[in-house]
Amino acid sequence: MFAYYLELALRSLKRSPGLTALMVLSIGFGVAASMTTYAVFRGVSGDPIPWKSSKLFVPQLQIFAPGRKGSDAEPQDALDYADAMALQRDHRATLQSAMYMISPSVIPRGAGRHPINVTGHAVYGEFFPMLDVPFAYGSGWGADADSQRAAVAVISGKLNRKVFGGGNSVGKTLNIEGRDYRVVGVLGDWNPQPRFYDVVNTGGFNSGSEDLFLPFQTAIAAGMGNNGNTNCDAVPKESGFVGLQQSTCIWIAYLAELDGVAAVQRYKQYLDHYARDQQTAGRFAWAPNNRLRDLPAWLDDQHVVPSDTKVSLLVALGLLIVCLVNTVGLLLAKFLRRSGEIGVRRALGAPRSSIYAQFLTEAGMIGAAGGVLGLLLTGVGVASVGLVMPKSIAALARLDVSLLLVTLLVAVLATLLAGLYPTFRASRVQPAWQLKSN
Amino acid sequence: MAIHPIIRALRRHKAGVLLIVLQIALTLAIVCNAIFIVAQRIARVERPTGAQEAGLIRISQTWLDAPEGDGTATVEALDALQRTDLATLRQLPDVLDVAASDSMPLQGAIWSADLRLKPDQRHASTQAALYYGDEHMLPTLGLRLIAGRNFTASEIDHHTIRSTQAAPVVIVTKAVADSMFPSGDALGKTIYLDVRPSTIVGIVERLQTPTVAPWGNRWAYNSILLPVRLDGSSASYALRVRPGRARAVMRAARAALFALNPVREMPDTWGIQTMQQIRSKAYRGDRGTAILLGTVCVILLCVTAAGIVGLTSFWVDQRRRQIGIRRALGARRIDILHYFQIENLLIAGAGVVLGVLLAAVISFWLMTHYAMPRMPLSYLLAGVLVMLGLGQLAVFVPARRASNVPPVVATRSV
Predict the structure, then answer these.
(1) How far is the alpha carbon of B185 from chain A, nearest alpha carbon, in Å?
(2) Based on the domain organization, do B125 and B25 belong to the same domain?
(3) CA A189, CA A165: separation in Å to the nearest integer?
(4) What is the span of the domain harbouring residue B118?
(5) What's the structural domain count of chain B?
(6) Distance from CA of B126 to the nearest CA of A (A)
């Protein structure tokens, strides 16, 4: 029976090629525009660490006096050195790490090779297990390396290839700014987008790579300056990097892993307690105003997804709805035009369900055709996103199997949905009236 | 022509009419708002920086073997590196002027300070971007001085960004002058950058800050020029070159600087760029959004027009006999044409009324959720006219086909 309906549908579509083309085009374009913007949106709003993001928290403290620069009701989005170190020392979370952005020069061995300027982060050893960072060789470093300010380094696969020509370089020596560091780990393929552990300094998206991780205190001791943002509400009393460490300027990102509601609650209390202690000690002249957001809430708060992209997605969804309304209208016209045929079929004994089956088959066919066209156009659309959008965003908009399937599915389902009302109307055609009037 | 029979006829096609009304309403609402967003983007991209962008080049580089620290010897060594670079660039052919200029409009990296009238003022009056550079910065960028004077060579200091030293003299933009001293007597006054006092010796007409990020929108033209060559392992220069010679100068500058000191990082991507390249990079997202939304709008209008053509064609087919009867009873072809045109005008009219309401709702929603400005009424008005025009355009082909139905159709039974 289905084959018969398919054949009927094909005949009917052939009979009015103009109307059919209109419907297929409108569905194709509607689906393609929606899917293209969805591809961009999915790229920029994807959870970078979905299996763990609800366990990762960003503590925020009111470090600047309320009502002054950079603070409304919200506390600051980074920490100063003193508070970051206090949180790190108290060690109240399962895993935690303060971090700041570094950009030292790596000096490759061998005569005539130019130094390479690399970017990376100074972190604590717990950074790696906390973020499930994949290693190709070796691993991160332990707590004693942190406390002893050991000269160890974790490097990216890219830097490994550049300096050592690839392979297992664990144990090799890397010259960074004139000092030797022992490589303890080489990262596997790891370039999370958004760069969630330090959104404040990367704006969330970064087309560059992270090539070097050093122990926090080692980098501090080596005087490796902060390469990220520094935000001050007062001029540091001392100049230089040491002055920055003694100032209330904020420049350190912090991430903590907390397992379970109780742990989160305890950590909140700890932060409040800490801020109140600072108030009592006279460092903060204001009541505690802390936040403890989990990663998704933090990314949202930092507006990591550009609002442009969200608005574009809404507009594209609007287009899809208009295309659907349009398809409803056109299908209605198409189906009711065949009232005579329906009348004959009904008079010959076809139940309403057969009419439903026949016309929904036809709608589904149009949807499939629109979907195929939509696939092609989505391909064109995603490819042209690279031409008009910033590289860091365009790189995230990819065409993959799941997107292709979703495109096809959306097209067919949307058209079937659009076909429901026209089919209902078609099934209500009175056979007697049709036969009489002809 | 009487409207009454048209409305009575439409009541027999409730579903179809409703669908077109809905489609026109949605299209109007979406297109109005989308075009408004596009217009905002275009206005943003086209706002002037205040610099003469043609013939302006920025060089930004890092010495990989530069000494580190804030000691006097280190600072002097860093400054010597920078001065050698500047002198070398000055020797190049087609170079009109060269300046130490740490920042550049639209370029991204920004130093900023809170501005105060008194050092103990609790809330800052406003904030501004800091342009560190020497006395060549103002002419090289091509800024228009509207009051006071440029820095003199003897006023130029040099230190690292971490220095707490105050700049005795500064040049501010008119935007800063107006917001700090509304009565227009900014010249010669003292302002505090964070807590450091500086005297205003000059006012330039306009200079955009280096950032185009949303947080900088409120003070996009608040910029202050400081007479300081910033020392550090990185340094940036601005070059004013002869018209049309930018490419040649960029090649020559690259060769000359690497010849001077090969141990430096100055990649193609951000090392040497023309102001046009900086501008195009800064506004890529805005342009992309505008193109994306514009494309969606065009598709939307086409789809709606196609929908009107399709449904009207169907109605024409359905009413062939009635049309034939009317023609047989003496209606002219133009009457039939007008019938469908007026019918479309009625439907589209209902659509735009609904659409205007919907557009206002969406606009309000965007205002509350995405902090967008209010859409001016002119957009709605233009949208209404476009939708009515589109309806007439779309209906013309089927209406003409209707007017071509011969009277003899009335006599046929099928």
Answers:
(1) 26
(2) no
(3) 16
(4) 66-262
(5) 2
(6) 10
